Structure to design on (476 residues):
C-alpha cells in the first residue's frame, strides 16, 4: 500500500529536503553525464572483462560443473541488493552513494561504519586491480620478450594515470571507461559464440546435470561468484554529476547487475565447455580466454582479449578512484574527515585533494607489499578480500535501512518493501559468514581482524571529529 504524503507532513518536509540535497553539486560539474555515461561508471567498476580472465577459473576450482549455476544464483542475490539501492536512488542522490543512504536512517555510528566500509571497498578494489595489472602485464611481457619490467614503476604508472584522468574531467573518464569495456566484451562474446557453434546446438550434459558438484564447495564458489559483481552500485557516486539522476542512476544500477550477470553466466558455461574440449583444466589455466580463442579457431582474439583484460583492469582502477574520491568528498562535507577534502578544482570541477588521497591510499599498500617481495596475485587476493568485507557490510546496511526510509520518509509500505530488503540483507550476511567460516588459513585468517581494527579506529575517530566540527551533517 502506498500512502501519499500530505502537504505539511513529515514525509513531505523530508521530500523537499531531499530535493534540495539532490540539487546540490558539492562543487562538482552538475548534470554533465548522460545516462549511458552514468551506466559506464557501474560497468567499469565491475570490470566484466576481468571476471572470465581471473575469477571464473577460481570459481570453477570450487564449484566445477556448477560454475554457471553459481553465477546465476549470485546474480539473483545481487539483484536483491540492486533493487534496494535503486529504490534509494529514485528519491535521493549525492556523491556519498550508499553511505548517504544508510546514514539518513541508521544511527550515526552505523552511518560511520557505512562510510568507512564503502571507502575501503572502493580504494581496496582499485589497489587489487593495480596488483593484478602489473602481474598479468609482466606475464605477457615475459612471454613476448623474456624480460620482466619493474613492478613498482608499473604500479606507479597504472595508479597515477587514472588519478590524472579523474582530475581532468569526469566526462572524459566515463567515455573512456565505456569504450574500453565495450571493445573488450565484444571480443569475448565473439569467442563464446564461436566455441558454442563448434560444440553444436546440444547442451553440455555434465554442466546441466551438475555432475560431481558437492554442496560445500559449491557454497564457497557461490560466494566468490557474488564478489564478481561488487561495484555495480558505483553509478550512485555520480549523483551530483549525472543528468536526470533520479532516473538514470537507478536504471544504471539495475541494468549493470543484469548485464553483468548474464555475461558472467554465459562466460562460465562456455569456459567450462571450451576448456574441456581443449583438454585443459580451467581451474589451473593462466589464460582461459586464449584457450577458448584457440578452440574457436581465432587465436588472435585470445591475444586481444588478454590485452583487453589489462585495459579493463585499468578501467576498474579509474572507476573506483572516481567513486572513492566522491565518497571522501561527502565524508568531508559531513564532518567525518578533514574539511580540506571537500574542495574542488575551480576549472575542472573535480575533487582534487580527494582524488589524490584516494589514489595514494590505493597505491601505497601495493607498493609496500611489492617492495617486500609479495606476488601480484597474493596482493590481489588479500586486498580484494578486505574490499569485499567493505562492500558486503555496506550492502547489508543499505538493505536494512530501506524499509524504514520508505515508510517514514515517503509513506511507502507494500509487500515488496517488507520482503526484498530483508532477503537482500540476509543474502549479504550469509555471504559474509561463508567467507569467514571455516576460518581461512594463512594471511587470509588475519584479514577479518584487520578489517575490525580499521573500523574500530574509524569509530574512535568519529566522535572526535563530531566534537571538533559539530554533529555530522548527513546529506541525503
Amino acid at each position: 500500500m502506498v500512502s501519499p504524503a500530505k502537504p505539511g507532513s513529515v514525509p513531505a518536509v523530508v521530500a523537499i529536503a531531499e530535493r534540495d540535497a539532490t540539487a546540490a553539486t558539492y562543487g562538482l560539474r552538475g548534470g554533465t553525464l548522460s545516462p549511458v555515461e552514468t551506466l559506464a561508471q557501474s560497468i567499469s567498476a565491475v570490470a566484466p572483462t576481468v571476471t572470465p580472465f581471473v575469477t571464473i577459473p577460481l570459481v570453477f576450482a570450487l564449484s566445477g560443473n556448477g560454475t554457471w549455476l553459481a553465477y546465476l544464483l549470485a546474480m539473483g542475490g545481487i539483484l536483491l541488493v540492486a533493487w534496494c539501492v535503486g529504490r534509494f536512488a529514485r528519491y535521493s542522490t549525492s556523491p556519498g552513494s550508499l553511505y548517504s543512504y544508510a546514514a539518513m536512517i541508521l544511527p550515526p555510528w552505523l552511518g560511520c561504519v557505512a562510510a568507512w566500509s564503502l571507502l575501503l571497498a572502493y580504494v581496496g578494489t582499485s589497489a587489487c586491480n593495480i596488483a593484478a595489472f602489473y602481474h598479468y602485464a609482466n606475464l605477457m611481457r615475459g612471454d613476448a620478450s623474456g624480460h620482466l619490467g619493474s613492478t613498482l614503476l608499473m604500479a606507479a604508472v597504472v595508479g597515477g594515470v587514472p588519478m590524472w584522468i579523474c582530475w581532468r574531467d569526469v566526462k572524459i573518464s566515463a567515455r573512456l571507461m565505456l569504450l574500453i569495456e565495450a571493445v573488450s566484451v565484444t571480443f569475448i562474446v565473439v569467442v563464446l559464440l564461436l566455441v558454442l557453434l563448434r560444440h553444436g546446438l546440444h547442451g553440455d550434459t555434465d554442466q546441466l546435470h551438475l555432475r560431481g558438484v558437492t554442496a560445500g564447495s559449491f557454497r564457497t564458489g557461490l560466494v566468490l561468484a557474488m564478489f564478481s559483481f561488487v561495484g555495480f552500485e558505483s553509478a550512485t557516486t555520480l549523483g551530483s554529476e549525472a543528468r536526470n539522476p533520479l532516473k538514470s542512476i537507478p536504471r544504471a544500477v539495475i541494468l549493470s547487475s543484469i548485464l553483468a550477470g548474464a555475461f558472467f553466466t554465459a562466460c562460465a558455461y562456455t569456459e567450462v565447455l571450451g576448456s574441456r574440449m581443449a583438454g585443459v583444466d580451467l581451474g589451473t589455466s593462466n589464460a582461459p580466454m586464449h584457450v577458448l580463442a584457440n578452440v574457436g579457431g581465432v587465436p588472435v582474439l585470445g591475444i586481444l582479449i588478454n590485452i583487453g583484460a589489462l585495459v579493463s583492469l585499468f578501467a576498474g582502477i579509474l572507476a573506483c578512484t572516481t567513486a572513492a574520491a566522491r565518497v571522501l568528498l561527502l565524508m568531508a562535507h559531513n564532518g567525518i574527515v578533514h574539511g580540506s577534502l571537500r574542495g574542488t578544482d575551480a576549472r575542472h570541477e573535480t575533487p582534487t585533494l580527494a582524488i589524490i588521497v584516494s589514489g595514494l591510499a590505493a597505491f601505497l599498500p601495493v607498493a609496500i607489499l611489492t617492495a617486500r617481495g609479495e606476488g601480484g596475485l597474493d596482493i590481489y587476493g588479500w586486498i580484494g578480500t578486505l574490499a569485499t568485507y567493505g562492500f558486503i557490510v555496506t550492502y547489508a546496511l543499505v538493505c536494512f535501512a530501506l524499509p524504514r526510509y520508505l515508510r517514514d520518509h515517503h509513506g511507502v509500505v507494500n509487500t515488496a518493501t517488507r520482503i526484498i530488503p530483508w532477503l537482500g540483507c540476509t543474502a549479504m550476511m550469509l555471504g559474509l559468514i561463508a567467507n569467514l567460516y571455516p576460518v581461512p588459513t594463512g594471511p587470509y585468517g588475519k584479514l577479518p581482524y584487520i578489517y575490525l581494527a580499521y573500523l574500530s579506529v574509524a569509530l574512535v575517530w568519529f566522535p572526535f571529529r563530531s566534537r571538533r566540527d559539530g554533529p555530522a551533517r548527513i546529506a541525503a
